[in-house]
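Input record (one chain):
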Amino acid sequence: MNSIKKPEVGIKPKFIHDEHRLIKIDDAILRFVENGQSIPIEWITERDQLIEVIGARKLKYNRT
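The corresponding structure, as predicted from the sequence alone:
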């Protein structure tokens, strides 16, 4: 019996990675806030950058 070789999975597209990363950062920030911990500035910076990139991408592809 011949077995069919499946292609390699590859990598996740950047737009999906960015959206998942933003969700993970938001979840982590919420956990820290709920526990009274300080939010690392790097998280806020990365979150702001992701929001800007995702927003620009949505504007670019949602124009008619």
